[in-house]
Amino acid sequence: MTMNSSWPSERHAVALVDIIDFKWLMAHEGRHVNVERLQNDAAYARECLALADTSRTPALQHVAVALRRVLLEETA
User: Fold this and answer.
1) Phi/psi of residue 32, each to 5°?
2) Alpha-carbon gap, residue 75 to 37, rounded angstroms
3) ∠ CA 20-64-34 to the nearest 5 degrees?
4) How far is CA 5 from CA 1, 16, 57, 59, in A?
5) Fewest CB within 10 angstroms: 12, 44, 58, 69, which?
6) CB neighbours (10 Å) of residue 2?
7) What gap in Å lies between CA 55 and CA 64, rounded to an integer?
8) pLDDT of residue 74
9) Angle at 69 between CA 10 and CA 56, to 5 degrees
10) How wide is the angle at C-alpha 14 spanned by C-alphas 31 and 72, nearest 5°?
11) Mean predicted confidence (pLDDT) in 41-48
12) Is 53:45 a contact under the CB 8 Å cutoff?
């Protein structure tokens, strides 16, 4: 077993933490995020992440950048 063999599951765990952070930060701004759809619908993910880009909350902008790398690179 190589060190990289566990990387996808670690990446998934980090992404899940970011997704939950994203959901609550968006809720704080009055926006509902459907977590399952965010993970499975690239167009919806792009829409949600674009909304986060307009936020004045640095934490939301930061987590959106991280999620964009994980969610959208997998669907590209």
Assistant:
1) -85, 135
2) 13
3) 45
4) 7, 19, 35, 30
5) 58
6) 6
7) 10
8) 57
9) 115
10) 65
11) 96
12) no
CA distance 76 to 74: 6
How many percent of the chain have pLDDT more than 90? 64
10 Å Cβ neighbour count for 47?
A: 12
pLDDT at residue 15, as a whole number: 82
Q: CB–CB of 35/23 below 8 Å?
A: yes
Residue 51 CB partners (closer than 8 Å, separation 6+): 26, 31
Distance CA 48, CA 67 (A): 11
Q: What is the pLDDT of residues 29-40, one digit of tens each?
A: 999 999 999 999
Cα separation, 44 vs 4, in Å, equals: 30
Q: Which residues touch 75 (CB under 8 Å, ≥6 apart)?
A: 42, 45
